[in-house]
Write a structure and sequence with these properties.
This protein has about 625 residues and is an alpha+beta fold. Helix content is about 20%, strand content about 30%. It has 2 domains: about 190 residues, Jelly Rolls; about 425 residues, Alkaline Phosphatase, subunit A (3-Layer(aba) Sandwich). The chain contains 15 helices and 34 strands. The two termini are about 40 Å apart.
């Protein structure tokens, strides 16, 4: 993969956020037309985040130090892209070797009110010769127009430049803004990527990841699987991994592991940098951090390090369009995927019908002509206590379930309906047979189980118990792999999903530095290896971690200097996992050794790894409050 972000004249100097009205994006970039001069000297470059909102109804105002903003009165969420912002000319410092056919893809943007005569020219330079490849009409960020238009237009209609005629050459890329105004307005190149053009014989299936936040295994495929009939329909043609485990008991570190193939101590995202009572209330988060609180305690957490490469970035490199539709604000707060997915559609913390409307917009806009990766993240099971009390009341009154279980079950039923609707639309627009479809949960949920330490447990992020770590994982492989439907009891991890996709696309060499392994051999019953699986970065009640091998799990409580060896095959009692504690010095020593090796390997690999993501504290606080993580 070409590290395009490192090729330009200046690395990130600040983050500029522009909230952009949809009405300015009605015009698609025009095709190449004519030549122009390239005499302007390169100007300073900075990264910028542009957010395309759902409706244009507001006026422009000046924001804080982050720069000018357009506020949008919208209930429909927003689409965020990352761009390189510049004045006059943007040029690469180093040449790119085009070893195979490539396509250059980007969105041209002018940070100004609409100017009809503004154009952005794209040049290719090699052998001291500059060739004009394309002249494109940019999208404008500050139009006062009130006419509705598609908010995904800048991303659905990017500029695509075929570089295959220059295969084998060392080339440089340059963009120039041409405007008949002085001074020229700022411009930007968004979602910049260099796609390898796939060979005709390469299989590039559409890929759908479905995440149900805080969804317990037993409410998907266990004793309560009847709650999800649409999911059972998918299971009839897929592979169920009955012993799949998450890498963290809350969303951010778990989803970062899902999308990078790295364990939490290797990606560092969601790591607790500092915690304490009210003295942290006034402490401002530094670049690369964000702050949250529950009750009287505050937490400073590490954001996503930009140097990491995620699944959407791997896929963009081989010609995929990549999109994330999420009702979970951690993707934006932490910087996860903001610079790597083509489209991040953040709808806010809303039920699944809102999530589906956004997902359907993406599917209808992008279509099936180009391979698509889509991640859809539902929050209904996470918000069971806020959204589904009325729906669960009738079952609770019937005595079939206790009140908490009834409410959670109602959220699960609703999630199944939303997933069914998504699968129906996917079948219509993308096709099911040769798609890769993955259903999983980022973690489970305590719904008031008895516990000797805490009396009852509710929520997530606070324990290393199986209810949180054992998650549903169902994969419907493309038909061309000839993998029969099955149930696999080999223990696997969510860090295995990225290596699985890379293996599917014959990119397994990219997975060598990951902690996970491909699940394709496992699904074919050619690999039943028992691995050590790790979970880390608990959010609440001090730092805990766990390491498992087979049916034994060692839970490490660092703050209280305690260990707990659990046999997960023992029957559960009213004592919860406290009733599964066993004493086996040999097993304990083996698991402790494995955990120490895991930590040592992570220290060696992550030296100097740190996020520089700048987070608007007010925006972060609003998103966290919507999810119940800020009081």
């Amino acid at each position: 993969m070409f590290p395009l972000r490192s090729l330009f004249t200046q690395r990130t100097s600040r983050v500029f956020t522009a909230l952009v009205g949809v009405s300015v994006f009605g015009l698609a970039p025009r095709p190449a037309c004519g030549a122009g001069s390239t005499s302007s000297a390169p100007s300073a470059v900075s990264f910028a985040h542009f957010t395309f909102d759902a409706k244009a109804v507001g006026a422009i105002r000046l924001g804080r130090a982050a720069g000018p903003k357009e506020t949008i009165g919208s209930e429909q969420g927003s689409v965020t892209i990352r761009a390189l912002k510049f004045r006059d000319t943007l040029a690469a410092l180093e040449p790119i070797r085009l070893e195979r056919p490539y396509e250059l893809v980007f969105v041209p943007i002018v940070d100004s009110a609409e100017l009809d005569d503004c154009l952005i020219e794209t040049y290719l330079t090699f052998d001291a010769e500059a060739i004009l490849l394309a002249t494109s009409r940019p999208f404008f960020t500050q139009s006062q127009a009130r006419v509705e238009a598609g908010k995904l237009d800048p991303l659905v209609n990017p500029v695509r430049v075929d570089l295959s005629p220059y295969q084998g050459r060392d080339v440089s890329v340059r963009w120039r803004l041409r405007c008949d105004v002085e001074p020229s307005p700022p411009a930007a190149i968004g979602t910049l990527s260099l796609h390898r053009k796939p060979s005709p014989e390469q299989q590039t299936p559409h890929i759908l990841f479905i995440c149900s936040d805080a969804h317990r295994y037993d409410y998907a495929f266990g004793q309560d699987e009847q709650l999800m009939p649409r999911l059972q329909g998918l299971k009839s043609g897929g592979t169920l991994f009955t012993h799949a485990y998450t890498n963290a008991s809350w969303t951010l570190p778990s989803m970062t592991s899902v999308l990078t193939g790295l364990s939490p101590r290797y990606h560092l995202t969601g790591r607790m940098a500092e915690s304490g009572p009210t003295q942290l209330k006034g402490r401002e988060a530094e670049p690369g951090e964000f702050k949250t609180n529950i009750g009287p305690k505050y937490y400073i957490l590490d954001a996503y390090p930009e140097r990491l490469v995620s699944l959407p970035e791997y896929l963009r490199d081989v010609g995929y369009r990549t999109a994330v539709v999420t009702a979970n604000g951690f993707y934006i707060i932490s910087g996860l995927l903001v610079d790597e997915a083509d489209i991040i559609y953040d709808i806010g913390t809303k039920p699944g019908d809102h999530t589906n409307r956004a997902a359907f917009e993406v599917l209808d806009a992008l279509g099936s002509a180009t391979p698509l990766f889509l991640l859809v993240h539902y929050m209904d099971a996470h918000e069971w206590g806020a959204w589904y009390v009325d729906a669960g009341r009738q079952e609770a009154l019937s005595g079939t379930r206790d009140p908490n279980s009834s409410v959670y079950a109602a959220a699960v039923r609703a999630t199944d309906q939303f997933i069914g609707q998504l699968l129906d639309r996917w079948r219509e627009t993308m096709g099911i047979e040769n798609s890769l479809i993955v259903f999983f949960a980022d973690h489970g949920e305590h719904i008031c189980e008895p516990d000797p330490d805490w009396y009852v447990l509710r929520g997530h992020g606070g324990t290393m118990q199986e209810i949180l770590l054992h998650v549903p994982l169902l994969i419907k492989f493309p038909a061309f792999l000839n993998i029969a439907p099955d149930e696999i009891d080999t223990p696997v991890s969510l860090i295995d999903l990225v290596p699985t996709v890379l293996d599917l696309l014959d990119l397994e060499s990219q997975a060598k530095l990951m902690n996970g392994q491909s699940l394709i051999p496992v699904a074919r019953r050619r690999n039943a290896e028992q691995r050590y699986l790790f979970a880390d970065y608990q959010l609440y009640y001090g730092e805990k971690a766990s390491v498992r091998h087979g049916h034994h799990k060692l839970v490490l409580d660092f703050d209280n200097d305690r260990e707990r060896l659990v046999d997960t095959e023992m029957p559960l009692t009213d004592k919860g996992e406290a009733g599964q504690i066993v004493f086996d010095a040999k097993v304990r020593a083996d698991l402790l050794r494995a955990f120490r090796e895991y930590c040592a390997g992570a220290r060696n690999r992550t030296a100097g790894l740190r996020s520089t993501h700048v987070i608007d504290p007010q925006d972060a606080e609003e998103r966290l409050k919507a999810m119940g993580y800020f009081e």
